[in-house]
Amino acid sequence: MFSSLAAPSLPGRGAVRLAAGVLVSVLAVAGAAAGAAPAAAAEDGAAGGQGGATATIGGLKAHGTAVIHGQDGDQQVAAGLFEMSVEGGGMLQTYCVDIQNPTQKDAKYLETPWSSTSLGTNKDAGRVRWILQNSYPQVNDLAALAKKAGVRGGLTEEEAAAGTQVAIWRYSDDTDVDAVDPRAERLADYLEKNARGLAEPAASLALDPPAVSGRPGERLGPVTVHTNAGGATVTPPLGAAAKDAIRIVDKKGRPVTEVTDGAQIFFDVPETAEAGTAQLSVQASTTVPVGRALASESRSQTQILAGSSESTVAATATATWAAEGPVPALSARKNCAEGTLDITALNKGDEPFTFELLDTEYTVAPGETRTVPVPLPEDRPYDFTVRGPAGFEQRFTGVLDCRTQSAALADTTHPLSEPAPTQPVTVPLHDPNLAETGSSDATPLIGGTAIALVVTGGAVLLLVRRRNEQ
Fold first, then answer.
1. Which of helix, strand or coil describes residue 194?
2. Helical pair 142-149 and 157-172, crossing angle rounded to 10 deg
3. Which residues partner with 76 through β-bridges?
4. Half-sphere exposure at residue 221, Cβ-oriented, CA atoms within 13 angstroms
5. pLDDT confidence band for 358 (50 / 70 / 90)
6. Distance from C-alpha of 109 to C-alpha of 401, rounded to nearest angstrom
7. Are the C-beta atoms of residues 231 and 284 closer than 8 Å to each other?
């Protein structure tokens, strides 16, 4: 029923002073006009740590036909229930919440907070969840559903799915849409009229925060587990069984392999550990809560969960450590209310962590946390690789898909017709006091700096490492 990666050691303090800066490489991925596929997502966590189900969309399981009434006339579209296959096992059923955006074949989707989708700025998002809770497939007694909605002659699965989707679109897209079938239309009217606001459901699995940092010889954390599963399995960093390796422990220092909701876990870093990074993962089997959003990194229409089998869900957290200098921990979340990617930097080191963004310098003092909003254009892929001292590296990829087409058309201050670039514009900087780095992303960071300047539809992002002056 549906209902530790070893890292190069950090050179000592001196003229290079890598510990005072951060190197950011930004790859501009062309928009749909260039036909380029975005890179696979690596880290794009919400403030509380994105996690949960990862699934691939299939076709429509049950559907009918709807008519969109627009200024240019009527348009017929399929309206119904999709199926998705979950990585690791399980199936999801979903409805669309972006009527004019097409579904891409075999697109990969990630369980996503409402705030990172068009639902985050939609005052009626809670009504969409009510519709999901009170219609097909959550209500699988179609005779009872038909009776409640005043539909004579009962409902088929196709009619129930079409009527439910039409009712959702009226709130998710604020559009004039009707079901072609009279019984599906009657159900849609009933659901629209009776919908009430419900709160956003919690993630099936998330880790908070998704990134921590500190000194060797410390327990880095805590990382708190949030899940609706009865239990979850912790996978430690690579090589955790080796002597003097990074271990995952509880607050008393005991090794942890199984956790439940609310558990706090730590990276136990030996005092002899060289500067580096490590990642843990947590995995569980559970049903994904109805009403969770699912967003794609390939501009495929955003979906909302209508039903879930027992499914595999997962989340990751990363730790960074070094004996001296700044020790950054970075995470990011899409903020659809502001149209930004919010980059949060935590510095557990003994020196400032400094970077420049859009001609403005930002410094995170030792022990402090700072969030910097990065304005991004709608529906354009982004790809950030952040590199810092001691081989620190973190990547953020995705697409800022915050508006339905109806909302975009109503916003004349942010036209979507601007052309996308076909390749990134890179401006190298040279400092005679700094060593050169290799051009490959796989080359270890030794010293020096580079700037990648990305122009995407008129938005310019500049994020560079600055040398700490003595």
1. helix
2. 50
3. 67
4. 26
5. low
6. 13
7. yes
pLDDT in tens, 211-249: 999 999 999 999 999 999 999 999 999 766 565 789 999
Q: C-alpha distances in angstroms, 418 versus 32, 88, 400? A: 12, 40, 16
Q: Alpha-carbon distance 272 to 215, whole Å?
A: 10
Cβ-contact 354, 361 below 8 angstroms: yes
Q: Which two tokens stand for residue 453?
A: 């300047």
The model's confidence at residue 318, banded by pLDDT at 50, 70 and 90, is: very high
Give the count of alpha carbons within 13 A of 284, CB side only.
Answer: 25
**What is the C-alpha separation between 193 and 410, in angstroms, rounded?**
25
62 three-class SS = strand
Task: Give me the chain's average pLDDT, please.
Answer: 78
pLDDT at 352 over 80: yes
Residue of 234, 238, 256 whose CA lies nearest to 246: 238
- DSSP 8-state class, residue 208: E
The CA-based diameter of the chain, rounded to the nearest angstrom, is: 82
- Rounded to an integer, what is the distance from CA 363 to the centroid of its chain? 26
The total of other beta-carbon atoms located within 10 Å of residue 34's CB is 12
E strand intervals along 247-339? 247-249, 258-259, 264-268, 276-286, 293-296, 303-308, 311-321, 328-335
| Residues β-bridged to residue 82 | 60, 94
CA 367: distance to chain centroid? 26
